[in-house]
Structure formats: C-alpha cells, structure tokens
Amino acid sequence: MKYLFRKRKPLGDTTKDYPGAAAKASELYARGFNCAEAVLQATTGREDPELIALAKGFGDGIGGSGCLCGAISGGIMALGLEGRPECSQPLVEAFKEHFRTTCCRGLTKDYTRMSREHLEHCRGITAETAAIVERLLREK
C-alpha cells in the first residue's frame, strides 16, 4: 500500500525520452503519482484534483490487491472521459500483446517491491500504456 502514497517529487532528469503522453505519464510517475493517476492525466491533459482522487485507488493493482494494472484502469478512465469507451477492449488487448498479462502482481513478480528497479519497471509500463491510449484516441 505504500506504493500509492509515495511522496511526490519535483520533476528531474530521471525521465526517459518518451514522446507525447508517454513522456508526460513518465514524468508524473517519477514525481510520485501512481500509474492510474499518471495515465489519466497524461492522456486527457486534465489535472482536476477530483479526477486524480478518483484514480488514486486504482494504483498498485486496484487498491493494492495486485490485480488489474492501474495503468490500464487509468487508460480506461481516460478513454471514457474522451468519449471513447469502445476503445477499452483494444487497450486491454494491446497491453496484453505487449506485456503478456494485465495483472499487476504478474507484471512485477521479478522485482523487489518498491525497489528502484521495480519503480523504473512500472514507470515504463505507465509510459507505454499512455502511448497506447494516445494512439487509440488518435486512430478511432
């Protein structure tokens, strides 16, 4: 559960060179937003505190359960907000194709929880998911 409440940090040089929404999601994650919050903000451009509060509980595999990856949840929220809920299934399919599973626990099983490697791995997943959402919003 600590993962959901990491202290938010100012932006630094810790972000990878991602384009578009992926770069924004990577930056937000590096600042301490969870995966769902970062994808939602990065793909909609909305920084509404109520939306961020809504997404908070979806990080860390929905409430820390380790189930559905919060990046997917944030992406589905973004698709709905942008009037594109029909793109939810293609998001899940593209995510599975890229990462093989949608389960947070499965995605992070090879990492020590909250280690630098674990957080970097999740930041990459968050950025990639934001890129998929951005592409789906442009395509359809």
Please describe what this structure looks like:
61% of the residues lie in helices and 0% in strands. α6 packs across α8 (116-139). The chain is built from eight helices and no strands. It has one domain (18-139). The chain has helices spanning 20-31, 35-44, 49-56, 59-62, 70-81, 88-99, 104-107, 116-139. It is an all-alpha fold and 140 residues long. The relative contact order is 0.19.
Structural class: mainly alpha
For the biggest sheet, the summary is:
none
Mean pLDDT: 88
Shape: globular
Summed up, the domain count is 1
Strand content: under 5%
Features:
8 helices; disordered N terminus; 61% helix; 0% strand; mainly alpha
Please specify the SSE layout and strand pairing.
Blueprint (H helix, E strand, L loop, with lengths): L19 H12 L3 H10 L4 H8 L2 H4 L7 H12 L6 H12 L4 H4 L8 H24 L1
Helix pairs in contact: 1-2, 1-8, 2-3, 2-5, 2-8, 5-6, 5-8, 6-8
Q: What's the short version?
A:
The protein is 61% helix and 0% strand. It is built from eight helices and no strands.
